[in-house]
Structure formats: structure tokens, C-alpha cells
Amino acid sequence: EFPASKWFRSPTMAPIPTRLPRPSTPPGIAPPDSVKKLSTLSFGVVCSSNINRSMEAHVVLGNAGLKVESYGTGTQVRLPGRSAMEPRIFKFGTPYEEMYKSLAATQDDAAFFMRNGVLQLCRRGAAVKVAPQRWQDTPPEAVTKHDVVIAFEERIFDAVIEDLQTREPTEDFKPIHVICLDTKDNPHEAQLQGRVALELCWMLESASDDLINQAPTIVDAFQKERMTHTPIQVLYQLCYL
Q1: Region (Disordered): which ranges (predicted)?
Q2: pLDDT at position 228, please?
């Protein structure tokens, strides 16, 4: 269950607006050696349900000016319910606004899902795009637009690689750099790792002219210099589609 966020304490429930302002985040500062004003690379960010970790990264990277789309690899969108045995489940493609309304159908439900932070996640999602997207159901022409895919859990990293390896190769046989930044599935950790992902993406963006040769070195240096606070390894795999 996601812990209640310190930013959301209101006990009242307002209906979700038809048009929501995009969530704001600090845009981040590009590395000194980055001279690009516009994003050259396209980034895919992936978690399980496309509502917490990948959506946090979607907002952070997008607000920083990077080209990004977000996805989930689960079979369904699973949200924390009143107990571990009672998750709220939705199909991929269900609009965030529809999920919000379902979770807030009664005053008691609205108060509960506001406290555990799930309504805020649905509200944020609705402000960015229509609905959660499933990675495995994404057509090849959309997948191959991405130069870099960041997964926020090792099993999701494995699922992305397996999917890329089992798809029919495209005519262009395009390289896709898949990276894992393992992140606990709660809003606080997602927020922290969203900033970490942004830093890594700027480093990759600065090497966009020769990414195939430079990406492994960048990821290795990032692991050694930026990830000293955690024993988690940054995983990397070059795939083609």
C-alpha cells in the first residue's frame, strides 16, 4: 500500500476537473557539456502499472524538455486497496479519470484513497495523458521511436528485454538501450528516482551522436559516481528491434 503523502492531507473530495494543469517539477539543470536546447533522444519509462514510478519519471523528464512516453508491463493496472488481498484492478487503457471516479464513488472510498495517495496518482496521470499504456501491446513503430528505455524494477527490465527479443524484427533493426533503475513502488521513492533518472537521461542526451559506443561507459560511470548511496546495480542491455 502506498503511504499517505505529506502533500495530500485534505479530507474532502473534489471532482476531478475535465482539464487538469500539468504537474510541475523542477526542470533540472543540464550537464555543463550539454549544449542541446531540444531533446534529441526519445525515452520510454516503464514500471508495472504506469501510474506511479513511470508516471513520475514521465512528468519529470517531460517538464525538463526531454521526449518521453510511459508504460507498464503488468497484465492489469493494480492499485493498493484496503488490504493486500483487495487491490483495485483496472484494465490497461482505462482512462485515469475513469479510475479516479471509480475509486471516489462513495465518500468513504474517496477519503480512503485520498489518504493512501492513489487518487492523487490518478489525478496526476489524467493531467499528463488519457490512460495507462501497456508496453507489450505497444505497436513496433511506437516502440522503435525510443532510443532509451528505463525500467524501474529488475523484473520489469527483464520483461522489456524479453518482449524486444520475441518481437518480429523491424526493417530498420533499430538499437534500443534498456536500463534498470530499481525503485520501490511507493510515491516517495518514485519521486527520488525520478530525479535520478533525469540526471542519467541528460548524460545520455549529451552523447546522443554516438550512443551505441558511449552508453555503456556512461551507465558504468553513473553507477560508480552517482549511485554510491545504494547497493542497487544499474543494469544495462543493448537490444535491437
Answers
A1: 1-33
A2: 80
Q: Can you tell me the distance from the alpha carbon of 77 to that of 157, in angstroms, rounded to the nearest whole number?
A: 18
CA dist list (Å): 228 to 174, 215, 221 = 33, 19, 11
Q: So what's the pLDDT on residue 24?
A: 63
**What is the spatial distance between Cα 235 and Cα 151, in angstroms, rounded to a whole number?**
9
The model's pTM is 0.85
Closest by CA to 187, choosing from 63, 91, 89, 57, is 57
> What's the pLDDT at 120?
96
Residue 40: count of CB within 10 angstroms of its CB? 14
Amino acid of residue 28:
G
Contact in structure between 44 and 179 (CB atoms under 8 Å): no
Strands laid side by side in the 42-47 sheet? 67-72, 42-47, 148-151, 175-180, 235-240
Q: Which three cell numbers stand for residue 172?
A: 530498420
> Which set of grid coordinates corresponds to residue 29?
539543470
Question: Could you tell me which residues come within 8 angstroms of residue 38 by beta carbon, excluding any fewer than 6 positions away?
Answer: 65
| 218-230: average pLDDT | 86
Pairing between β-strand 77-79 and β-strand 88-90 as defined by DSSP bridges: antiparallel
- Which has the closest alpha carbon to 183: 215, 151, 227, 223? 151
Domains of the chain plus CATH, in order, are 42-74+134-240 (3.40.50.2300), 75-130 (no CATH)
Place of cell 519529470: 60
**Residue length of the chain:** 241
